[in-house]
Amino acid sequence: MIHAGVDADARNQVAADQLATLQATGHATVGVFAGTNARTAELSAALTGLGVEHVPIGFPEAYGEALSTMATMTAYTFGQATWDQVVLRLAVFLTATDRAREPPALALGLVGRAALPPGFARRVEELRRTLSEVTDPLGKGAKAEGAA
Asked: Torsions phi, psi of 104, nearest 5?
């Protein structure tokens, strides 16, 4: 079943109603494609609110990119990654959270292909400064695995 052009206010209820109908007719498993990670998250929250048991899937790209971004930020604190690598990973993560045809404006701004909103630019600079000031990336007194 494909539904297109459904009013945004009615989408979640339409999906819940269709799921109930399919389950009542013997379908134990039903897939719903929402188009974007943001829309999938919205639908999941709405279905939870409507009491529909479900498992949201389709977030592995964003999750993987989040881990890669955190690893790159950690590497930056050790001097093993450049700031350009950090902002590139941030931009890739932002892009992975939004399955639009084009990268989000903030992602383009992070890699210098568009202007960043001033408030966001200040926060990115604050992140850079904070990561640059880390002197004990593993935590006070912590040692890397295998260190003596």
From this structure: -60, 155
d(CA 114, CA 102): 13
Question: pLDDT per position in the chain (148 positions), as tens?
Answer: 666 777 877 877 888 888 888 889 988 887 777 777 677 778 888 888 878 777 777 666 777 888 889 999 999 998 899 999 999 999 999 998 886 788 999 999 999 999 999 999 999 999 999 999 988 777 765 444 444 4
- Give the tokens for residue 84: 């350009």
Taking residue 94's Cβ as centre, other Cβ atoms within 10 Å add up to 20
By 3-state DSSP, what share of the chain in percent is helix, strand and coil, each rounded to 5?
55, 0, 45
